[in-house]
Amino acid sequence: MKQNIKMAMAICLAAVIVLAAVLVIQYLPSQNEAISLPEGEPPQWQVTVTGNVEQQKTLTLNEISEMPLTTVVTKVNGENVTYTGVTLFDFCNMSGMLWDAGQIEVIASDGHSATLNVFQAWNSTTYPYFQDINKITLVFVKDDQWMTEQTGGPVKLIAPYFSKEHQVEHVSTINIGLWTVSITGAVKNPITISSKNMTLFQQVTVEAEFVPGDGSRTSDWTGLSVMDILEAANMSYRAEKIVVFAIDDYSRNYTLQEIEEAQMLVGYQENGEPLSQNKGGPFRMFLPVDKYKWAQFWVKFVTEIRVY
């Protein structure tokens, strides 16, 4: 009898959960539906995207306002102000940003500029709980009014938690640079690796299992041999280890023996596709042997390999 009651209660609870989920899906508006733009045409303004993109292009504010919209709340003179715009990451992505993008220079019409990077732009949109206050955003509406040059627009960069100099007004150009990995420390020939010189090294593809923490997957991993890179950098014969640094300040040590044992690669492709930021790209360490298949060894967002 008690077992039947428990089973009935479990079925009712499951039904309630399913019904709640259906109602949320049915009635929760999409971000674009929930955000409206002011009446009338936006101001005449355009933003040019250059650098590491498929091709340089110039977008009008009218075209930009048709991208997926978002809001960001920040304090101005001690009061909360709500801005509407597009996240910097979405803007760059939809403008043809290439897989190996690195720095993002945001330039005003008067020449003032601020430099961020793709990781910062992406990371600021990753955690929904904080997204109304930390999203790095190109805004063009302030408190339901189109922004003008007099109010810091027509396009302004809002970069919460960054310095005042990063809040660029009158944005007219976005210049996207390359992501690089520097080989430094006890080497006679420091090297900076990017997509522009990767062909100087042999490309290696290895099938292996990877366990990132949410299950495991077996893929073809493509990258450059770390030992080949260290030899090209003329590593000191006294060297004992490397430290791999990520752009988010994470780092990990590896002995030279571990590098060889793990067949370590500076990786950039999974199954022939470039690594997205969601997968730790554009460059992360691949250690394609069973002993090192765990995520803590596969350092993400790699920017430097320092030899000691």
Describe what you observe in this structure.
- This protein has eight helices and 20 strands.
- It is an alpha+beta fold and 308 residues long.
- A five-stranded mixed sheet has the order 2-1-10-5-6. Strands 3, 4, 7, 8 and 9 form a five-stranded antiparallel sheet that branches. Strands 12-11-20-15-16 form a five-stranded mixed sheet.
- The radius of gyration is 24 Å and the shape is elongated.
- The N terminus is likely disordered.
Describe the protein's topology:
Blueprint (H helix, E strand, L loop, with lengths): L1 H26 L3 H4 L11 E6 L5 E4 H4 L5 E7 L2 E9 H7 L6 E8 L4 E5 H6 L7 H4 L2 E6 L2 E2 L9 E3 L12 E8 L2 E5 L5 E3 L9 E8 L6 E9 H7 L8 E6 L4 E5 H6 L3 E6 L2 E2 L9 E3 L15 E6 L1
Parallel strand pairs: 1-10, 11-20
Antiparallel strand pairs: 1-2, 3-4, 4-7, 5-6, 5-10, 7-8, 7-9, 11-12, 13-14, 14-17, 15-16, 15-20, 17-18, 17-19
User: Would you state the CATH class of the largest domain?
Assistant: Alpha Beta
Radius of gyration: 24 Å
H/E element sequence: HHEEHEEHEEHHEEEEEEEEHEEHEEEE
Poorly predicted spans? 1-32
Shape: elongated
Question: What is the total number of structural domains?
Answer: 2
| Major beta sheet summary | 5 strands, mixed
CATH architecture of the largest domain: Alpha-Beta Complex
Name the average pLDDT: 88
Tell me the CATH superfamily of the largest domain.
Oxidoreductase, molybdopterin-binding domain
Q: Using DSSP, what is the number of strands?
A: 20
Sheet with most strands: strand arrangement: 2-1-10-5-6
Percent of residues in helices: 10-25%
Please work out how many helical segments DSSP would assign.
Answer: 8
Q: Distance N terminus to C terminus?
A: 69 Å
Find the CATH topology of the largest domain. Answer: Sulfite Oxidase, Chain A, domain 2
Strand content: 35-45%
Alpha-beta content class: alpha+beta
**Oligomer category:** single chain
